[in-house]
Amino acid sequence: AESLACGLPIMLNNFIPCQEAGNIPWVIDNKVGDYSNEPDQVASTVLRWFEDKEGLRKMRKRTLALGRPEATYKIVDDLVDLVRKYKWTPFKAGDINAELDKFATVPF
Q1: Which of 35, 71, 83, 105 could be stapled to 12 by a disulfide with Cβ–Cβ 3.0 to 4.6 Å?
Q2: What is the CA radius of gyration of the chain?
Q3: Contact status, residue 49 vs residue 59, Cβ threshold 8 Å
Q4: In degrees, to the nearest 5, what angle opens at C-alpha 78 toward C-alphas 72 and 84?
């Protein structure tokens, strides 16, 4: 997600079984990166990207189209809404409840 938000290609070299295994076909199918667990192949793939300026430009365009840089702010806003909805007040003695709006403002 971070690479996509920055418009950078993704070179996957490992994954957590079950949790991240779906990332590999998604990255490859969307043509925003590649996967290999072989160090020499990782290096040659990245080198090929740098040598192919037009291909790298196209990949960057696809990554930017798929990236969601505002997602973190949206998640925070959703969490704040849940806190308000269920009146969850674990910090009753503190000032955090009075200042929730300051933490939930999306700068976009």
Answers
A1: 35
A2: 20
A3: yes
A4: 140
* Contact (CB, 8 A) for 38 and 72: no
Q: Is 63 in contact with 7 (CB distance < 8 Å)?
A: yes
The two structure tokens encoding residue 22: 């779906």
Is residue 95 scored above 60 in pLDDT?
Answer: no
Q: For 90, what's the count of Cα atoms within 13 Å in the CB-facing half-sphere? A: 1
Helix axes 53-66, 39-51, angle to 10 degrees: 100
CA distances from 8 to 2, 29, 49, 65 (A): 8, 16, 11, 11
Helix (H) or strand (E) holding 33: strand 33-35
Q: Which structure tokens are listed for 94?
A: 């503190």
Give the pLDDT confidence of 27-49 residue by residue, as tens digits. Answer: 999 999 999 999 999 999 999 99
